[in-house]
Amino acid sequence: MPRSLPRPGRGALAAGAVATAVCLALTLAAVAPRAHAQGGDDNLPDVVKIKISDPTRDLIRIAVPPAVGDTGANVGDIIANDLDLSGFFRLLDRKSFLGNLAAEGLAIVPADWSNVGAQWVVKAQMKPASGNRVFLDFRLYQPAKGPDAALSKALVAANAGEVRRRVHEWAAMVVKFITDQDSFFGSRLAFGGTGRGVREIYAMDFDGYGLARLTNMNSISMLPAFSPSGGQVAFTSFARDNPDLWIVGAGGGRARRVAHYPGLNTGAAWSPDGSRLAVTLSKDGNAEIYLVRPSDGGIIARLTNDRGIDTSPTWSPDGSQIAFVSDRHGSPQIYVMGAAGGGARRLTFQGSYNQTPRWCPRKETPLIAFSGRDQRGRYDIFTVDPGSTKIARVTQGFGSNLDPAWAPNGRRLAFVNTGSKAGIWLVNPDGTNPVQISKTSASGLSWGK
Fold first, then answer.
1. Residue pair 52/141 in contact by the 8 Å Cβ criterion
2. How far is Cα 25 from Cα 415, in angstroms, rounded to an integer?
3. Phi and psi at residue 167, in whole multiples of 5°?
4. Which tens digit of pLDDT belongs to each residue from 134-157?
């Protein structure tokens, strides 16, 4: 899918943890790995290489023709894109459809759809109403079971701008009906802008639409983190000439400064109940992980106390554990400890530079995604099981892939590619069905509800 750093010693890692406005090498979890150098023992065993013979073999085959009466909203395309991004479906090529779509309307001729391999068919119809309102009529069919709709829904959009939201609602119903799984349609991705000079925090819809700037700090702002409800975003900014922790509403607006201790205030991760923030502070000289209150930044507890640099915390979905990055044994590796601190256990032993751990929000899926440097000096996305410490590779084959972020339902991973296919991508945790959703340059992804 779609660089090489020296094996970092204590001085190199400390330089990466102490942020500057020039390079933004704020933490092990941030920008430092994007630089180039030579050397290092980067060997990862073959066991973590991707071996996929047919990435679509287990996907549900679904047909989504254009919506009847569509006047430019591209309803059928929105549905098809949603289902494709969900990771559950393989969209059939519209050129293969045998039926007379104009004659069918909202109905289907089951044999015509079965003959092209469709296990499911989604139909939609648009009708203008009074004012700016739009009526949307939806149908879901299972051709093998006949011409009757398995699911139907009528929705009203108050205006043209609301059509996309209503279509997302329908697509979510389709996913739930067929798979009995929740979708992430309606969720958003937040990220830091890249480039020289001022960098702000941005957000966009899960499908790459609706790009909006959340902050107006007129400074370097980075490492956003959605709250569990999706209503707030914590981030680090140099607006007051120090890397301080701020919080802004998910819709943007005036940000408030939360933690502003001397040195680093960065890498915030919300606890699952939203009552605490795990952050990296260096107020006492070394970068350690603390718990602070989101309301005022008051320190609740110090969780690590080691001569190494500890950073990039991420919570387990039940709130009982925190994974983080530390160089306490010579190179950045992933560790896990109890949420009260102490008893840290190393999870990764392969690769010399592992970073940005993100815990899967699904309790039944014990996986932590992270970015690690492979034997070729490139960064790719991997997962590690915190119980068995088994590592699996998610991305491979096109440039460096960084900053993993889990969908709220834990079914997809977002990541940033910095190679020839630069931008934001989604992929299944097993490496299948990669889709680029945006060519926007980004760093430090967070995926919120």
1. no
2. 19
3. -65, -40
4. 999 999 999 999 999 999 999 999
